Amino acid sequence: MLRFFFKKQKEVENLIGEYVRSVEIAQEMFVQSMENYLQGGTCNPTFEVLTAETHKAESRSDDILEKIVNLLHEKALVPDLRGDILKLLETTDEIPDQFDRILGDICNQKIVLPESLNMDFKELLTLSLEACTFTMESARSILGRGERVARLLFKTDQLESQVDQVEKRIIVHIFESDWDPLQKILLRDLTQKMGDIADSAVQVCRQVNLIVTKRRV
Q1: Mind listing the pLDDT tens digit for each residue in 162-196?
Q2: Staple 43 to which of 56, 107, 129, 139, CB 3.0 to 4.6 Å?
Q3: φ/ψ of residue 5, rounded to 5
Q4: Is the pTM of this model over 0.85?
Q5: String of b and e for 75-110 (b: at least 16 CB within 10 Å)?
Q6: Could you tell me if 151 and 97 are in contact, meaning their C-beta atoms sit under 8 angstroms apart?
Q7: How distant, in Å, are the alpha carbons of 55, 65, 121, 159, 214 from that of 156?
Q8: How many helices (H) and strands (E) does the chain have?
Q9: How far apart are the C-alpha atoms of 49 and 65, rounded to whole Å?
Q10: d(Cα 119, Cα 187) in Å, to the nearest integer?
Q11: At what angle do helices 2-40 and 79-92 cross, to 10 degrees?
């Protein structure tokens, strides 16, 4: 029975590693998509192709997540840890979903990015995705000792604060402009959704830190 338990835990560990990698692939495709968007400020055929690839990567992460959930429901871990892992994965899955929604909004709502916002959006993108990178590092260590988790949480929290500052600066710029009111609303919403990526990253790191701390007690 003990051997069976450890075998199931190893399966969970392997699937979590696979899931994290799938989220990282979605992030890579999201970066390519946004870099293309920032070059021209509009949805174009190349952007649409990259958006479709990001969606595929997001769907792949959903498939792996379903496998993990099914395995956990087979009592692969002790009940307390099983519940913590399920909650963590639910929070983590918000990140690739955000990638997918942001790209979809840009295309579906025909959001045109003014050139004067280009540099600020690049900064917002860089900071948010750096937070995601630290988060994925943190998630990988969830069933290990997790010595680096607290440091990764600190770094991610710092990045989230920087994202908030850039987000506020962009929104001020938007509403001080003489752009069309509808365009202002669309750009504000897009800015906030970009900032939400860092918020989700921090939430994931906090949950990982909590799980690791509980396992040490």
Answers
A1: 999 999 999 999 999 999 999 999 999 999 999 99
A2: 107
A3: -60, -45
A4: yes
A5: ebbeeebbebbbebbebbbbbbebbbebbebbbeee
A6: no
A7: 25, 23, 19, 5, 21
A8: 7, 0
A9: 25
A10: 14
A11: 10
